[in-house]
Every structure is written in C-alpha cells, then in structure tokens.
Amino acid sequence: MDGATKMRRQLSWSADIIPGGALMGVNLGMTLVEFKALLCKENVSSGMNGLVKFDNSPLLKFEESENGFSVLAADISNVSYEWQREVMDIGFDDGRLIYFRVISPIDTRFEYKGKIFGDIGLGEKVECLRKYYSEIIYDDVEEWFYFKNGPIGIRVSATDDFKDNEFNGLINSICIQSHRFLDVMDGA
After folding, report:
1. What is the pLDDT of residue 5?
2. Are 167 and 125 in contact (CB under 8 A)?
3. Given a cut of 80, is residue 9 above it in pLDDT?
4. What one-character-per-residue DSSP string does 83-113 give?
5. End-to-end alpha-carbon separation of the chain, Å?
6. What does the buried/exposed string (b/e) look like for 136-167 if buried means 16 or more CB atoms within 10 Å of the residue's CB?
7. pLDDT higher than threshold 80 for residue 50
8. Rounded to an integer, what distance in angstroms lies between the CA atom of residue 11 and that of residue 42?
9. What is the rounded distance in angstroms from the CA atom of residue 150 to the CA atom of residue 154?
10. Phi-psi group of 135: left, alpha or beta (phi > 0 → left; psi -120 to 50 → alpha; rest → beta)
C-alpha cells in the first residue's frame, strides 16, 4: 500500500481490533509521520495537542510523549486525577507504530467500541476469548492474560475474578502489539 492510499484512511472508534494487526482502522507498523498526518486531518482545534474527534469517537486529546501518545477523553468529568480520563495508549519505536492499548476509563461511555474479531470488547469476560484461543495464561507478575493456539499479538488485563481456569474477570484493557514490540520488550 503506497503512502497516498494510507493517507486516505479514516479513523474509527468502533473499528475491529485485529490481534497483531490494527486498531482504530490503523495498521501496526505505520510511521509516526503518517500517524500524525492522519490525526491532523481529524483535528478540531489548533495545534498538534489540540482536540480530535472522528467516526464514533468521543472528543479526544492526544498527548505526545517520547515514545508515543496518551489519549484522554476530554469530556470525562468529576475525576480526581487526569489519568482517569485515559482511554488509550499508543506506542512507537524507531518511528514505527508498535502497539495500541485501549483502557476502560472511569466512565465507560467513553471507552473504545471496537471488538476483538468483531466479537469481544472491553467489559466482557476474558473467558469469551476461549472460542478463539484454546489456552489462556495469566501472568500474575505482569498482570496480563496471554493466549496460545490462536492469532498472536494480543494480551488483555481484567478485573480480579478468576480461579481454577475460570476466567470470569471483565476485560478492562486490551493491547495489540507487533512482533517489533515483542523484540523491544525482550531488549533485542
């Protein structure tokens, strides 16, 4: 796909979550320059740190950091801390998009609406992912659920309701990552 084709892409707050592939209609591997250009098309106020709104999304603020963006729902009110507005974290390495992490915020009306395989999203039971993965593994140090024997490039966190291989906890965070993310985390 050439750069011009990529630039016609539209962001969507309800686009499917594709493990190891895409979220918001944006493919992992996109360059930081392309991603910023895509955001600027959706900008509703001046400047890169302005407010952004696109297909089905709440009003969002993309705060750029050294390694990506923290995405806040601008209209969430009555929070004690700014981080309680966070709905997404986006990571880049060497100028390439390597992961998306969607987070269930304090006010779930603002959470990401896309679903894993068009089927399972934030607020649903981890157990629901068994139809796609034969093995669910919980890492109690990292506090993430990992999956075997299915599409790679995804992990989820959930409320603490699990025991004896019954994963009834509700998904409160979904992270999709590229192979490059795994290499960065392993120090390669």
Report:
1. 42
2. yes
3. no
4. GGGEEEEEEEETTEEEEEEEE--SSGGGS--
5. 28
6. bebeeeeebbebeebeebbbbbbeeebeeeeb
7. no
8. 8
9. 10
10. beta
Question: HEC string of 2-26?
Answer: CHHHHHCCCCECCCCEECCCEECCE
Distance, in Å, from the CA atom of 50 to the CA atom of 26, rounded to the nearest integer, reads 20
Q: Residue 13 in contact with residue 113, Cβ under 8 Å?
A: yes
DSSP per-residue string spanning the chain: --HHHHHT---BTTPPBBTTTEETTEETT-BHHHHHHHHHHHBSSSSTTSEE--BT---EEEEEETTEEEEEETT--S-SSGGGGEEEEEEEETTEEEEEEEE--SSGGGS----BTTTB-TTSBGGGGGGT-SEEEEETTTTEEEEESS--SEEEEE-S-EETTEE-PBEEEEEEE-HHHHHHHTT-
Alpha-carbon torsion angle 36, 108, 159, 151, nearest 10: -50
d(CA 31, CA 56): 24
Residues 78-90 have pLDDT tens digits of 888 888 899 999 9
User: Do 96 and 35 touch, CB atoms closer than 8 A?
Assistant: no
Is the CATH code 2.60.460 the one for domain 3-185? yes
pLDDT digits (tens, 9 = 90+) for 153-183: 999 999 876 665 567 889 999 999 997 655 5
